[in-house]
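Q: What residues go here?
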């Protein structure tokens, strides 16, 4: 098992009191497995990804990833986990504006100690961003930035990839191509992929689909 969530609960404090978002989530991902996460807007999909990605802590429950319970890690432990054990692709791309595309792509891989120029070259070609390497993020379209952000995540060869609507800014053909690349890279690397998507067409490309509803995996 690459990722295992057990009875994970998460609430937020709001002006109207505590808002229970995740009410006991159980979810397992095997190595090499790809899973689509669906559910209505506000159902807690991003919250779940943030927890599995070590960006936030659950109120209760276990999140086993990379051989440890990341729910118990402190800030520093979670930062190390994010650096070495997980790749995150979010809707806002968070590219580093002062670095060109080539440097953005190798940034996380270098931090993780897994910089591999041959692998990065392959990624760049498959993502169709070869011609953009010397540009800066502000000189790219939304779709181009999305491809670069995906390349940056995959360059570090993370064992677990968590992607929150990663192709939302792309047209259908590009979305299919980019998801296809994420999938084949996940399979060949024995990684696991959890993708939030509203597209049943994209979900069908993955091994299975789980739906978040009423705070539970239905
Ligand atoms: P989804 O990604 O499925 O659209 P989210 O996980 O982003 O859902 O949000 C689930 C619910 O939790 C929403 O009602 C949202 O407003 C609320 N929420 C998310 N983050 C916070 C926060 N930091 N503080 C308070 N409420 C939040
Ligand atoms: Mg969301």
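A:
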């Amino acid at each position: 098992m690459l990722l295992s969530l057990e009875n994970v609960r998460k609430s937020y404090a709001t002006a109207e009191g505590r808002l229970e978002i995740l009410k006991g989530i159980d979810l397992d991902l095997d190595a090499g497995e790809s899973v689509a996460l669906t559910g209505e807007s506000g159902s807690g999909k991003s919250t779940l990804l943030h927890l599995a990605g070590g960006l936030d802590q659950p109120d209760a429950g276990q999140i086993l990833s990379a051989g440890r319970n990341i729910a118990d890690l402190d800030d520093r432990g979670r930062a190390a986990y994010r650096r070495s054990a997980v790749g995150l692709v979010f809707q806002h791309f968070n590219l580093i504006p002062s670095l060109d595309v080539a440097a953005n792509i190798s940034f996380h891989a270098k931090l993780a100690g897994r910089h591999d120029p041959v692998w990065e070259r392959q990624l760049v070609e498959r993502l169709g961003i070869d011609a953009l390497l010397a540009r800066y993020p502000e000189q790219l379209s939304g779709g181009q930035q999305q491809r670069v952000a995906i390349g940056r995540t995959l360059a570090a060869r993370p064992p677990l990839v968590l992607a929150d609507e990663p192709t939302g800014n792309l047209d259908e053909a590009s979305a299919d191509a980019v998801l296809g690349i994420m999938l084949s890279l996940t399979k060949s690397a024995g990684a696991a992929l959890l993708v939030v998507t509203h597209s049943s067409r994209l979900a069908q490309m993955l091994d299975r689909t789980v739906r978040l509803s009423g705070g539970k995996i239905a």
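A: Context that may help when evaluating the design: The chain is about 35% helix and 25% strand. The two ends are 21 Å apart (CA to CA).
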